[in-house]
Design brief:
The C terminus is likely disordered. The chain is an all-alpha fold and about 325 residues long. It contains 14 helices and two strands; from the N terminus they run H-H-H-H-H-H-H-E-E-H-H-H-H-H-H-H. A two-stranded antiparallel sheet has the order 1-2.
Amino acid sequence: MVGFLLNRLLQITIVMFIVIAIAFSMFTYLGDPLVAILGADSTPAQRAALRAELGLDRPIIVQFASYVGNILSGDFGISYRLGRPVGAVLAERFPATFELAVSGMLIAVVVGIPAGVYAAIYKNRLSSRIIMGASLFGISLPSFFMGVLLIWVFSVNLMWLPSYGRGTTVDIAGWKTGLLTLDGLRALLMPALTIAVFQIAMIMRLVRAEMLEVMRSDYIRFARARGLSERSVNFRHALRNTLIPVVTVVGVQLGSVIAFAVITEAVFQWPGLGLLFLQSVAAADVSMMAAYLIVIAALFVFINLIVDLLYFAIDPRISISSGKG
């Protein structure tokens, strides 16, 4: 177990070093920060003074070492567009994206896994075929169209839910959350459903396929031959072994939803990282885009580490084999 963690930490260090190097290169290839800060009307003297102040006149290796040191200390620089520390802006926007992503994935897991298990156990029933047909529809529907459709039904026609924004939030130790207010929950519902529809369909189809494969295994036939009940066979043995690939997919998709909820946040004007990234691209705010890349990469590697650790909890045989290795 210790060897596994050390190996993963070494891999994470290498990956993050490469990501930081790519983020650093964005300052060179995605525009001139001096023009972005001072404007096109600035004089050469003003640019030279700012270049010296920012340390851009130093050798590139020294600049990169300074950039890495600043990142490790939590300093992502100043936003060209907002004129504020990038880290503070990301910290303000992260709770909105995190709550949206976790809510969407929670809905997907709660609905997708039971539906996939039902479709596998009762694969010949009409209801199972309807579920699989609905999953094909959900996996094919673009998220922006789903969001617009929900707005048209529940905001424009029925006027039940707000069509944009995050609603009322409360501040708990610096974390602004809308989960504790009715207005915040109403504002969260449609964006979370927009994210969840595709995830439900994917999880449902994955669980059904893995469950059917596991149920054809020899140890499942032996379990039935021993006289175990169908409930015990299906849920204690088959479902437990089905969850390993499901945990992998859910973990990766959670990272993807956090990173790429751009369209959903744009449709609902959700004040999260995705909308911030779009605004930064439009304004050529390189410091914000570079920080976004680093933060998202860090989230991905952290989530993948948690998923790997969950393997040991789901299937102890993995822990035993890893220990022997």
